[in-house]
Amino acid sequence: MPQIAPVAIQEARYCAKLIRAELEGRGLPPFVYRDKGTMATIGRRSAVTELSNGLRLAGMTEAAMVVSGKRRRDLAARLRT
After folding, report:
1. CA 13 from chain center: how many Å?
2. pTM
3. 15-24: long-range contacts at Cβ-Cβ below 8 A with a sequence spacing of 24 or more?
């Protein structure tokens, strides 16, 4: 797995669920990392996004999404419809 924050966040949530499940006497399936893609700002008016399905976007629209606080999964949901 890549050594990036989203992996650590997903692992922490899984660990919390695992501890609770163990205390309740039940188990959980093994941890599976779900890649949601990446988004980065490049300069003041440009950004790039690569979604987990391989779709790549770049330009002003991406920069506006970064600034407005949109999340990658919101973008992915819109692209699926």
Report:
1. 14
2. 0.56
3. none
Residues in CB range of 10: below 8 A, 6 or more apart: 31, 33, 34
Structure confidence at residue 38 as a pLDDT band (50, 70, 90): confident
Same domain, 29 and 51: no
**71 and 61 both lie in a single domain:** yes
Does 1 share its domain with 30?
Answer: yes
Q: Give the DSSP H/E element, type plus range, for residue 69.
A: none
Q: pLDDT of 14-35, one tens digit each?
A: 999 999 999 999 989 999 988 8
